[in-house]
Amino acid sequence: MTLEETLKRLKDLGDEKVRARNIRAGAGENQYGVKMGDIRKLAKQIKTNRALAFGLWETGNTDAQLLAILLVKPKMLSRQEVDHWVRTATVAQVADWLNAYIAKKHADAEPLRLAWMTADDVWAARAGWSLTATRVAKGADLDLSALLDRIEAEMAAASSAVQWTMNMALAEIGIASPDHRNRALAIGESLGVYRDYPVSKGCTSPFAPIWIAEIVRRRG
Questions:
Q1: Which of 5, 10, 55, 139 has the highest count of CB atoms within 10 angstroms of its CB?
Q2: Rounded to whole angstroms, what are the CA distances from 71 to 38, 43, 56, 77, 173?
Q3: Mean pLDDT (whole number) for 81-104
Q4: DSSP 8-state code for residue 44
Q5: Angle at 25 between CA 23 and CA 26, to 5 degrees
Q6: Is 115 within 8 Å of 154 (Cβ atoms)?
Q7: For residue 28, what pLDDT is reported?
Q8: Could you tell me if residue 28 is left (phi over 0), alpha (psi between -120 and 50 degrees) or otherwise beta?
Protein backbone atom coordinates (compact mmCIF):
# COMPACT_ATOMS: atom_id res chain seq x y z
CA MET A 1 0.00 0.00 0.00
CA THR A 2 1.41 3.39 -0.99
CA LEU A 3 1.47 6.45 1.22
CA GLU A 4 -1.31 8.07 -0.80
CA GLU A 5 -3.47 4.93 -0.62
CA THR A 6 -2.92 4.63 3.12
CA LEU A 7 -3.82 8.24 3.77
CA LYS A 8 -6.98 7.77 1.70
CA ARG A 9 -7.88 4.71 3.79
CA LEU A 10 -7.40 6.72 6.96
CA LYS A 11 -9.49 9.58 5.62
CA ASP A 12 -12.26 7.16 4.62
CA LEU A 13 -12.20 5.66 8.13
CA GLY A 14 -12.45 9.08 9.73
CA ASP A 15 -15.48 10.04 11.77
CA GLU A 16 -16.39 13.70 12.24
CA LYS A 17 -17.80 13.09 15.71
CA VAL A 18 -14.60 11.34 16.78
CA ARG A 19 -12.53 14.13 15.20
CA ALA A 20 -14.51 16.81 17.03
CA ARG A 21 -14.13 14.93 20.32
CA ASN A 22 -10.41 14.53 19.77
CA ILE A 23 -10.00 18.22 19.01
CA ARG A 24 -11.84 19.16 22.20
CA ALA A 25 -9.42 16.88 24.04
CA GLY A 26 -6.45 18.72 22.55
CA ALA A 27 -5.56 16.42 19.66
CA GLY A 28 -5.17 19.23 17.14
CA GLU A 29 -6.74 19.86 13.74
CA ASN A 30 -4.47 17.66 11.60
CA GLN A 31 -6.33 14.38 11.99
CA TYR A 32 -9.23 12.46 10.45
CA GLY A 33 -10.84 11.18 13.64
CA VAL A 34 -10.12 7.49 13.08
CA LYS A 35 -11.10 5.18 15.93
CA MET A 36 -8.18 3.49 17.67
CA GLY A 37 -9.57 0.04 16.86
CA ASP A 38 -9.68 0.89 13.16
CA ILE A 39 -6.07 2.11 13.23
CA ARG A 40 -5.00 -1.18 14.81
CA LYS A 41 -6.96 -3.21 12.25
CA LEU A 42 -5.36 -1.28 9.39
CA ALA A 43 -1.90 -1.84 10.88
CA LYS A 44 -2.55 -5.60 10.96
CA GLN A 45 -3.56 -5.51 7.31
CA ILE A 46 -0.49 -3.55 6.22
CA LYS A 47 1.96 -5.30 8.57
CA THR A 48 5.53 -4.11 9.14
CA ASN A 49 6.59 -1.42 6.67
CA ARG A 50 9.41 0.92 7.63
CA ALA A 51 9.30 3.09 4.50
CA LEU A 52 5.55 3.63 4.75
CA ALA A 53 5.85 4.35 8.47
CA PHE A 54 8.35 7.15 7.85
CA GLY A 55 6.17 8.63 5.14
CA LEU A 56 3.15 8.58 7.42
CA TRP A 57 5.11 10.11 10.28
CA GLU A 58 6.29 13.09 8.30
CA THR A 59 2.70 14.11 7.43
CA GLY A 60 2.23 15.29 11.01
CA ASN A 61 -1.29 13.86 10.90
CA THR A 62 -2.26 12.34 14.24
CA ASP A 63 -3.93 9.24 12.79
CA ALA A 64 -1.05 8.71 10.36
CA GLN A 65 1.53 8.99 13.14
CA LEU A 66 -0.34 6.52 15.34
CA LEU A 67 -0.44 4.08 12.43
CA ALA A 68 3.26 4.66 11.72
CA ILE A 69 4.16 3.60 15.26
CA LEU A 70 2.38 0.26 14.73
CA LEU A 71 4.18 -0.41 11.44
CA VAL A 72 7.71 -0.56 12.86
CA LYS A 73 9.60 -2.54 15.49
CA PRO A 74 11.95 -0.75 17.92
CA LYS A 75 15.00 -2.46 16.38
CA MET A 76 14.10 -0.97 12.98
CA LEU A 77 14.82 2.57 14.19
CA SER A 78 18.20 3.98 15.06
CA ARG A 79 18.72 5.97 18.23
CA GLN A 80 18.75 9.16 16.15
CA GLU A 81 15.50 8.21 14.41
CA VAL A 82 13.73 7.50 17.69
CA ASP A 83 14.92 10.86 19.00
CA HIS A 84 13.61 12.58 15.86
CA TRP A 85 10.21 10.93 16.15
CA VAL A 86 9.93 11.80 19.83
CA ARG A 87 10.77 15.44 19.21
CA THR A 88 8.35 15.72 16.28
CA ALA A 89 5.35 14.09 17.96
CA THR A 90 2.22 16.13 17.43
CA VAL A 91 0.04 15.43 20.48
CA ALA A 92 0.17 13.63 23.81
CA GLN A 93 -1.51 10.47 22.54
CA VAL A 94 1.06 10.09 19.77
CA ALA A 95 3.89 10.77 22.24
CA ASP A 96 2.57 8.17 24.66
CA TRP A 97 2.13 5.47 22.00
CA LEU A 98 5.66 6.20 20.81
CA ASN A 99 7.04 5.89 24.33
CA ALA A 100 5.10 2.67 25.04
CA TYR A 101 5.66 0.84 21.76
CA ILE A 102 9.06 2.11 20.64
CA ALA A 103 11.14 4.16 23.08
CA LYS A 104 10.95 1.99 26.20
CA LYS A 105 11.65 -1.17 24.17
CA HIS A 106 14.55 0.29 22.17
CA ALA A 107 18.08 -0.97 22.73
CA ASP A 108 19.18 2.60 23.47
CA ALA A 109 16.30 3.37 25.84
CA GLU A 110 18.56 4.24 28.77
CA PRO A 111 20.94 6.65 26.98
CA LEU A 112 17.90 8.23 25.33
CA ARG A 113 16.21 8.57 28.73
CA LEU A 114 19.23 10.31 30.20
CA ALA A 115 19.47 12.71 27.26
CA TRP A 116 15.76 13.49 27.33
CA MET A 117 15.76 14.15 31.08
CA THR A 118 17.79 17.32 30.45
CA ALA A 119 16.15 18.31 27.15
CA ASP A 120 14.51 21.66 26.55
CA ASP A 121 12.16 20.08 24.02
CA VAL A 122 8.75 19.42 25.61
CA TRP A 123 8.11 16.04 23.98
CA ALA A 124 11.63 14.80 24.69
CA ALA A 125 11.27 15.81 28.34
CA ARG A 126 7.87 14.09 28.50
CA ALA A 127 9.45 10.92 27.11
CA GLY A 128 12.34 11.11 29.55
CA TRP A 129 10.08 11.32 32.57
CA SER A 130 7.85 8.57 31.17
CA LEU A 131 10.81 6.23 30.82
CA THR A 132 11.99 7.23 34.28
CA ALA A 133 8.60 6.37 35.78
CA THR A 134 8.79 2.97 34.09
CA ARG A 135 12.28 2.32 35.45
CA VAL A 136 11.25 3.31 38.96
CA ALA A 137 8.28 0.93 38.78
CA LYS A 138 10.61 -1.88 37.72
CA GLY A 139 12.95 -1.27 40.65
CA ALA A 140 15.88 0.20 38.73
CA ASP A 141 18.79 1.57 40.77
CA LEU A 142 18.08 5.29 40.36
CA ASP A 143 18.80 8.22 42.66
CA LEU A 144 15.23 8.67 43.90
CA SER A 145 16.13 11.53 46.23
CA ALA A 146 17.58 13.50 43.32
CA LEU A 147 14.51 12.78 41.23
CA LEU A 148 12.27 14.02 44.02
CA ASP A 149 14.42 17.16 44.28
CA ARG A 150 13.80 17.88 40.59
CA ILE A 151 10.10 17.12 40.79
CA GLU A 152 9.68 19.37 43.83
CA ALA A 153 11.54 22.21 42.12
CA GLU A 154 10.22 21.87 38.57
CA MET A 155 6.84 20.15 38.33
CA ALA A 156 4.56 23.04 39.31
CA ALA A 157 5.94 25.26 36.54
CA ALA A 158 6.42 22.51 33.92
CA SER A 159 4.39 22.51 30.72
CA SER A 160 1.27 20.36 30.88
CA ALA A 161 2.85 17.79 28.55
CA VAL A 162 5.86 17.31 30.83
CA GLN A 163 3.94 17.74 34.07
CA TRP A 164 1.87 14.64 33.35
CA THR A 165 4.84 12.26 33.20
CA MET A 166 6.71 14.00 36.01
CA ASN A 167 3.65 13.28 38.12
CA MET A 168 3.78 9.65 36.97
CA ALA A 169 7.37 9.45 38.20
CA LEU A 170 6.40 11.05 41.53
CA ALA A 171 3.63 8.51 42.03
CA GLU A 172 5.81 5.55 41.05
CA ILE A 173 8.49 6.63 43.54
CA GLY A 174 5.91 6.81 46.30
CA ILE A 175 4.51 3.42 45.35
CA ALA A 176 7.78 1.57 44.78
CA SER A 177 9.90 2.97 47.61
CA PRO A 178 8.61 2.90 51.21
CA ASP A 179 11.70 4.87 52.23
CA HIS A 180 10.70 7.76 49.94
CA ARG A 181 6.92 7.46 50.25
CA ASN A 182 6.35 10.11 52.88
CA ARG A 183 8.37 12.66 50.96
CA ALA A 184 6.57 11.81 47.71
CA LEU A 185 3.23 12.25 49.46
CA ALA A 186 4.35 15.55 50.96
CA ILE A 187 5.53 16.88 47.60
CA GLY A 188 2.25 15.90 45.99
CA GLU A 189 0.25 17.63 48.72
CA SER A 190 2.43 20.73 48.64
CA LEU A 191 2.36 21.19 44.86
CA GLY A 192 -1.29 20.21 44.50
CA VAL A 193 -0.89 19.18 40.87
CA TYR A 194 -4.06 17.38 39.65
CA ARG A 195 -5.72 17.79 43.06
CA ASP A 196 -8.98 18.78 41.35
CA TYR A 197 -8.58 16.63 38.24
CA PRO A 198 -12.00 15.26 37.17
CA VAL A 199 -12.22 11.46 37.10
CA SER A 200 -14.99 9.06 36.19
CA LYS A 201 -16.64 6.96 38.85
CA GLY A 202 -14.48 3.98 39.76
CA CYS A 203 -11.28 5.53 38.40
CA THR A 204 -8.29 6.59 40.50
CA SER A 205 -7.35 10.26 40.57
CA PRO A 206 -3.94 11.19 39.11
CA PHE A 207 -3.37 13.40 42.17
CA ALA A 208 -0.21 11.73 43.46
CA PRO A 209 -1.20 11.32 47.16
CA ILE A 210 -4.47 9.62 46.17
CA TRP A 211 -2.79 7.53 43.47
CA ILE A 212 0.01 6.38 45.76
CA ALA A 213 -2.31 5.51 48.64
CA GLU A 214 -4.70 3.55 46.42
CA ILE A 215 -2.05 1.44 44.67
CA VAL A 216 -0.23 0.71 47.95
CA ARG A 217 -3.58 -0.35 49.46
CA ARG A 218 -4.33 -2.66 46.54
CA ARG A 219 -0.94 -4.32 46.80
CA GLY A 220 -1.42 -4.85 50.50
A1: 10
A2: 14, 6, 10, 11, 33
A3: 96
A4: H
A5: 65
A6: no
A7: 80
A8: left
